[in-house]
Every structure is written in structure tokens, then in C-alpha cells.
Amino acid sequence: MTGWPDPQAVAALLREVAAAEILPRFGCLAPGEVHEKAPGQLVTAADIAAERALAAGLARLAPGVPCVGEEGVAADPARLALLERPGAVWVIDPVDGTANFAKGSSRFAVILALVIDGVTRCGWIYDPVAGRMVIAERGQGAWEGDRRLAVLPGGPLDRLSGSIRRGSRLQGRVAHVLRQGSAAHDYLDLVGGKLHFAHFRRLMPWDHAAGVLIHAEAGGHGRMLDGSPYQPRASEGTLLLAPDPQVWDLLRAGLA
Questions:
Q1: Rounded to the nearest 5°, which phi and psi values hold at 87?
Q2: Of all helices (H) and strands (E), which one includes residue 225?
């Protein structure tokens, strides 16, 4: 991306912030460091400190580019409107899977996306416990280190594994289903050979902007359930990700 920070420099920032602000608090949160910001939605001291540190680091790498972060939007919902305007925006989920993090489960990650003129140009997902960093740049593939990632091949429904909500109509029609409490880990598994598909209803940009790009750059097919392309903003609707258009159509029919 000419004129933008090297994706590896951004990755280094994610590692640095996770080491300084997230991992030292993992399994060590005091009662006052966890609270509900909305019914059923937890926030921890790690979320707040990591988002603050990421925003400061990104401001050094790309001065003048605003941030839309999960915790910043919780404090000021008007910040979401930045994604409706022309120009560049960083989209931050400092700790995806906060409920897992708070209870000591390692199913959490840091997600970052660079959105320019309403299009995700680059995405990062970092699992700090496993030390996994996945990066995708539009048109350049999805990578973990020097390994190019690819989605699993498709097949009949009864051979597919996916991430879906409880009570989905696909339960019983596919081989295996699970929900991990972390969109980041669903995306990591979609491009890491563990999941064939995923189905999401709560579409906040910090959960999906990076992951949808990573999945597409690994060869996957993702669309809103009405067939329209995903856009990196807060939206109503349902997102369905599959290995290819044929499997996407099968899954969509199964959800109807």
C-alpha cells in the first residue's frame, strides 16, 4: 500500500501492545477491572488500555488517520459515522472475545483493519497467546508469516464444519458446529483448516472488517444473506462465509 505504513510495522505494534497491556492482565484481572458496559457486554481494563495504546501507536505510524475502536464507540457512538465518510480509518477491536478473556479462556485476539473510502484495504488478526499473526492486504493474499493461507475445499453439507448460533436450522444438517465467543478465532479457523463456514448476525465493524478481507484473500466467498457484499460499517443483516459460491448457496438455502 503505497503511502501507508508497512503491514509488518503495524503487526509489530499489535505484538507490542498485546505484550504490554493484554497478556499481563490475562488471568490476573481484579474485580474492579471487569464491568458491563451494556447488558451482557463486558469490558475490561485490558480492552481500554490496549485500545488507547493502539490508537497512540497508529497515530505515530499514520498521523491524522482517525480510529474507530469498540471502546471508543461505546463512549461516543457518533464515532461510527467516520466509516460513512471518504478517507482512511483504522478499525480496532483491542480484545475480541472479552468474555473469554475475563474468564481465563485463551480464545481472544486483537483485530485491526485499515478502511479507505469504505473498502477494507488491509486486515490483521493477532492471537497473542498462540503468537499467531494473520495479515491480508487487498489483492495480495492472506498470510501467516511466510505461509499463504487458503480456505478448506467445499463439499456436501453433511461433511462441513462451521460456526453458527445455537438453534440454527443448519444444526443436524452439517457435520459439526460450534461457537467460540470470538469472531477473530472463527476467522483464524476459516483460513487455518478447521472450519468451512461461519454465519454471523451481530455485524460490528471491529469484529468483521479485517476478517472478511482475510477470508476473501484466502479464496473464500462471503456475502450478506441477501447476496449483497459486506461493507465495513455497523449494519443490520446476516453475514455468511463459505469456501465457494456453490457451498454458499447450499448454506443459504439451509438457513432459509
A1: 110, -175
A2: none
